[in-house]
Specification:
The complex is a heterodimer. Chain A is mainly alpha-helical. Chain A has one domain. In chain A, 74% of the residues lie in helices and 5% in strands. Chain A contains 13 helices and eight strands. In chain A, the strands form four sheets. In chain A, strands 1-2 form a two-stranded antiparallel ribbon. A two-stranded antiparallel ribbon of chain A has the order 3-6. A two-stranded antiparallel ribbon of chain A has the order 4-5. In chain A, a hairpin with a 2-residue loop joins strand 1 and strand 2. The mean pLDDT of chain A is 73. Classes of the chains: A mainly alpha, B mainly alpha.
């Protein structure tokens, strides 16, 4: 159930992270050039941002409720270890809510410079909020900052837990993912309009700004992904083995690119940057400590495959823009972009499934099992069904609103 | 010491939520009862104008309270959320519906759509404070034992006192909303609306006051410990303070002085929350778990208190700015031209 809520919430988070930066960038462009189109577009995007933020607020509330409703034992045992992170996240969320309201409702009424400055805390709060949430996830993968005596948590060092060593790669990975998802989703909306023949300047600007962000984030993500995978290889070898479906420990392990085709030594090379490194297999831990390999392997591949394709798409754009100062003129470019938006969400969810399911059966890696963390209350299926319906309704609401926003009259005023 | 500080912060957050978030829910109550499409339109549009820029920020106080609770008092949090899973889940559903419907309301294309969305918004605005109030009432009544779902999933919050606190939460929210909206109407120079909100404020204020007095009587028979706390020492001071603030508020409403009434109405509600906390102190989950027993380790509490202090220091000026801009009409909601 929480998985479903997260799946709904995460794409919204991406907008919370990246959209403010894109909107403020557009507003900055307007202030530099004085071109009213930039301002009108920024205004338009900020409205969409507010809608998505409102829905993010309610799904975020559900999540914090669910933390307790579903995992009372987990919270009761470890709440004080990682709670600080959520505390700071709560404040970030607060700041974001306040400044988004001022920003969106303050167009036309605040002096331009003040208005632009109001955008900055939104970006900052998006960053610090994701920093904190990722910190908790990093901690679940590598619990530090406390000791366990007879099932009781003692000697808590919240700062050690907060700045656990998994934080940095997971953070950069997620932050970039936020930009990738947001920019490709925005680009795919404009690409769809492009295909329907709306090719005026407004659509070109929307497309190019979104793609520029994508072009920065997507290729960089390949490098960060490599960093993340190597860290996993080092710290959670069983998880890496699940990524690749490696059942037995192997020296110089190969990489199965497509089923049946194996590149010798490639996995060892990728994971440890050493073709002869020994890669630990799933067999190094007892069977009931192994994650469900099928799911992890599939989702890991989906993420890597889509991520690579998106990076290629972004590079194509950069190349054309740099050499010819125009968009690729084949009709396939916008078509691929239309697909890229939803695909980026798939990659996002797949990446999250990879890290979460890859950690199973542990909720706190090698400390607490998921089944020991769950609530003793009944009625989860009922709640699940109700919540599914609500989310479908929310999705419909968001869709209808954004569509209406897209269709409403576009006014360019200086 | 640290545990007390953390409890005070949690309480500040809770009070802010009951007042500010409560008023937003109360606005939903007036939306629900505003009457037919034509007659209710000015009331509804005033509600929308007043709420749109601030409701998200107001709502985040709830998240603040939850986070404080699970960080500083993890054991209590686990016990509360597992035993009170039903009302909390229903409240969470209501929160989603309320937020979603409110966000979409202005964009409705047809009358039917607008009506359905408005009804969803208004109805869930009434249900959420009821369920949250019932959950709080269950804690006050001592129905939440320590442990993973140790209490009765249904019986714990369907007793007289919890249900009663649920009603009280709806009533105080409605009263706050009527006062705030009355003041907003005055600023907007809409005398007809001022009159309508005055009547609502007086009615709901009287109802909330009557419920609060009845609540004491119920506590006397259902939760004697709570009653003792409320009728002696600091608890009694809060009860008297709340009553005084309530009477002053009613008088100000009568005289149509809504601006100062904002603060007295808020004080009356805040005093109820403080009184509840003081009455059950030192217990967090009466009759078993005290604040100190439930508290997290000192290192966590210290870090949390420092973080919360810094956070509030950043937050309060920002919030103050938001409210000032909203009240001075700089953040007016503007309808976009329809296609």
């Amino acid at each position: 159930m929480q998985a479903m809520s997260f799946a709904v919430h995460i794409p919204l988070v991406c907008f919370g992270i990246a959209f403010p930066a894109m909107v403020v960038f557009l507003e900055g462009l307007w202030m530099r050039t004085g071109d009213p189109l930039y301002r009108a577009l920024a205004k338009r995007w900020s409205k969409a941002m507010l809608i998505l933020f409102a829905i993010g607020v309610v799904t975020g509330t559900i999540l914090s409720f669910e933390m307790g409703l579903l995992w009372p034992e987990f919270m009761a045992t470890f709440g004080d270890v990682f709670g600080l992170a959520f505390g700071i996240e709560g404040f970030s969320f607060f700041m974001e809510a306040i400044f988004i309201a001022i920003y969106v409702y303050g167009w036309d009424r605040l002096p331009p410079r003040t208005h632009l400055a109001v955008g900055l805390p939104i970006i900052l709060a998006g960053f610090s909020g994701s920093l904190m949430v990722i910190s908790v996830n990093g901690w679940m993968n590598q619990p530090t900052g406390f000791s366990l005596q007879n099932g009781e948590v003692t000697d808590v060092k919240p700062l050690t837990a907060l700045f656990n060593s998994n934080l940095w790669h997971e953070l950069v990975h997620m932050y970039l993912a936020g930009f990738i998802v947001t920019s490709f989703l925005v680009a795919s909306v404009y690409a769809a309009a492009w295909l329907r023949g709306r090719r005026d300047r407004r659509h070109v600007v929307g497309l190019v700004v979104a793609l520029s962000f994508a072009a920065l984030a997507a290729p960089a993500q390949l490098l960060v992904g490599d960093w993340a995978a190597r860290t996993v290889a080092e710290r959670q070898p069983v998880k890496l083995a699940a990524f690749e479906g490696l059942h037995e420990t192997e020296k110089g392990a190969g990489l199965e690119v497509v089923p049946g085709v194996e590149v010798p030594k490639a996995l060892a090379l990728l994971a440890f940057h050493d073709p002869n490194a020994t890669v630990r297999g799933l067999d190094t831990v007892p069977e009931n400590d192994q994650p469900p390999v099928g799911i992890v392997k599939t989702s890991f591949r989906a993420m890597v495959g889509i991520g690579t394709a998106l990076a290629a798409l972004a590079v194509w754009f950069v190349w054309m823009w740099w050499r010819r100062r125009r968009l690729p003129d084949t009709v396939w470019f916008p078509r691929l972009l239309v697909a890229a938006g939803p695909l980026s969400v798939v990659a996002l969810i797949a990446g999250w499934v990879t890290t979460e399911v890859g950690r199973q059966p542990w909720v706190v890696y090698e400390v607490m099992r998921t089944r020991d963390a769950v609530t003793g209350a009944d009625g989860i299926p009922v709640g699940f069904a109700a919540l599914s319906l609500i989310y479908i309704a929310l999705a419909a609401i968001a869709y209808v609103m954004l569509r209406r926003l897209g269709r409403s009259e576009f006014e360019v005023s200086a | 010491m640290l545990a007390d500080l953390a409890a005070v912060f949690t309480l500040i957050g809770l009070t802010a939520y009951v007042v500010l978030g409560g008023a937003d829910f109360g606005a939903g109550f007036w939306d629900l009862t505003a009457g037919g499409a034509e007659r209710g339109a000015p009331v509804r549009s005033m509600i929308k104008r007043a709420m749109a820029p601030v409701w998200e920020a107001n709502h985040v106080w709830l998240i603040f309270v939850l986070v404080m609770l699970w960080t500083a008092f993890p054991e209590a949090f686990g016990s509360i959320t597992s035993t009170l899973a039903v009302p909390l889940f229903l409240a969470a559903l209501g929160i989603v519906l309320r937020g979603g419907a409110f966000a979409l309301k202005g964009e409705a294309g047809t009358v039917g759509e607008a009506r359905a969305l408005g009804a969803t918004f208004a109805l869930s605005s009434v249900l959420v404070p009821f369920f949250l109030g019932a959950a709080a009432g269950a804690i006050a009544a001592g129905e939440v034992p320590v442990g993973n779902a140790e209490g009765d999933l249904w019986g714990s919050w369907t007793g007289t006192l919890p249900v009663f606190v649920g009603f009280l939460a709806v009533a105080t929210g409605a009263h706050l909303a009527a006062v705030f909206l009355g003041a907003d109407s005055q600023r907007a120079a809409e005398p007809e609306l001022v009159g309508r909100f005055r009547a609502r404020a007086l009615g709901s204020g009287a109802a909330a006051g009557a419920l609060a007095i009845a609540g004491l009587v119920i506590a006397n028979s259902e939760a004697p410990r709570m009653y003792d706390g409320l009728t002696s020492g600091a608890g009694l001071a809060c009860v008297i303070g709340s009553a005084l603030a309530g009477v002053v508020t009613l008088w100000l409403e009568w005289r149509q002085r809504f601006e100062p009434a904002r603060y007295t109405a808020a004080a009356a509600v805040a005093a109820i929350v403080a009184g509840w906390a003081l009455a059950q102190a030192p217990y967090l989950l009466p009759p078993e778990l005290t604040v100190h027993e439930a508290a997290a380790s000192d290192a966590t509490l210290a870090a949390l208190v420092i973080a919360a202090t810094i956070g509030l220091a950043l937050l309060i000026p920002a919030l103050a700015w938001l409210f000032r801009l909203t009240l001075s009409g700089k953040l007016r909601y503007q309808d976009e031209p329809r296609p």
